[in-house]
Design brief:
The protein is an alpha+beta fold and 342 residues long. The protein starts with 11 loop residues before the first strand and ends in a 6-residue tail after the last strand. The protein is built from six helices and 22 strands. The strands form six sheets. Strands 1, 2, 5, 6, 9, 10, 12, 15 and 17 form a nine-stranded mixed β-sheet that branches. Strands 11-16-13-14 form a four-stranded antiparallel β-sheet. The chain has a three-stranded antiparallel β-sheet with strand order 18-21-20, with no helix packed on it. The protein is globular. The protein has two domains: 225 residues, Sandwich (Jelly Rolls); 58 residues, Beta-clip-like (Beta Complex).
């Protein structure tokens, strides 16, 4: 008998029962869905009674477990791809980077991982060879329930040509915190995250925009979601504030993620950034002084032609960073290009 999605702010579906229509309906309502047990054997209900109905799900077409060896081989063959969008979320305490070894080499350039807790991420993108090789090593390229070709009311889903990779270990008892709570300024339908090894805890909080549009989420505060090995979390990271942590006593947490476009939109060429930055924690009106030279003397912001911030001179002659337009909560800050750079 099929089990219905659980009530609550985060609907829960079982991999053996989930369909594209069931997922789409739950996701449209909450902008988040958790699919449990995606890497286990499923029964083939199309076989006649009495036959061996035990089969390997399309999700588990490769039985070999994914580990750091896969990431190390990717780094060995495509070092520039990994380095380009590598970020150390939490560096090892006894990091050898201080004596000339960078973070990515310390984690993936050696056969043995550094001791203690650490957490890192990178993006596989802008290289067809690296992306194809990495996808080939994964248990799935796209979740089966998102492989539907489309039908009336449900266009075929598209995916970006990029894979996010999050990995770390936490031998200590207390959780290891990743990046602080934030939203992602990306025009997609959301991102699915497959937990390949270990577990990860997500802390989610609906944005004001989501609360206004989703009646079931009005009055909802922070929600904790624990993803265990084989679980897949689909979440609109633009509409949900989110942060992650690796639980205590976790020898390896490894997950991959891809951006999805459920409206059938074909995503443009990817160039994802993977660095800590500054973003608006609330809506900011045009003309607001966001930073001052006195408050943030070492502030560094990316420069873009479509930036939302600009430099201005204050009454005392000091530099101010001012909003050029209305900035929505969760939007990343960037500075307009100077005359010398344009």
């Amino acid at each position: 008998m099929k089990r219905k999605a659980s009530d609550g702010p985060v609907p829960v579906l079982q991999a053996q029962d989930v369909t594209f229509e069931a997922f789409s309906k739950a996701y449209a309502k909450h902008q988040v869905v958790l699919v449990r047990r995606c890497l286990t054997k499923q029964k083939d209900t199309t076989k006649p009674p009495g036959s061996d109905s035990r089969v390997v799900s399309p999700l588990t077409r490769r039985r070999r477990k994914i580990d750091l060896g896969v990431l190390r081989r990717l780094f060995a063959r495509h070092p520039k791809v990994v380095r380009r969008a590598f970020n150390m979320e939490q560096a090892p305490k006894a990091s050898s980077a201080a004596v000339g070894t960078d973070g990515v080499t310390e984690l993936l350039g050696r056969k043995k991982s550094p001791a203690g807790p650490w957490y890192a991420s990178f993006v596989v993108q802008r290289s067809r060879g690296a992306l194809a090789a990495f996808l080939q090593a994964l248990p799935m390229v796209v979740p089966p329930f998102l492989q539907k070709k489309g039908c009336r009311g449900f266009p075929a889903a598209k995916h970006s040509d990029a894979v996010w990779v999050f990995f770390g270990q936490n031998p200590q008892a207390r959780p290891l915190q990743g990046r602080p709570e934030h939203t992602d300024a990306i025009a997609h339908s959301g991102t699915w995250h497959l937990q390949l090894r270990g577990s990860k805890v997500w802390v989610l909080r609906p944005t004001a925009e989501l609360r206004r549009s989703a009646r079931p989420l009005r009055g909802v505060g922070r929600v904790r979601v624990r993803c265990r090995e084989g679980d897949l979390l689909c979440v609109n990271t633009r509409l949900w504030w989110h942060s992650t942590r690796i639980p205590g006593r976790c020898p390896l947490s490894l997950s991959v993620a891809r951006d999805m476009y459920l409206d059938g939109t074909r995503p443009t060429a990817c160039d994802m950034t993977n660095v800590d930055g500054h973003f608006a924690t609330r809506n900011i009106p045009r003309g607001t002084v966001v930073f001052s030279e006195e408050d943030a003397p070492d502030l560094e912001l990316p420069r873009k032609p479509d930036a939302n911030l600009a430099l201005a001179e204050g009454p005392d002659g000091g530099l101010l960073v001012v909003a050029m337009r209305r900035i929505a909560a969760g939007e990343w800050f960037s500075l307009a290009e100077s005359e010398d750079e344009s």
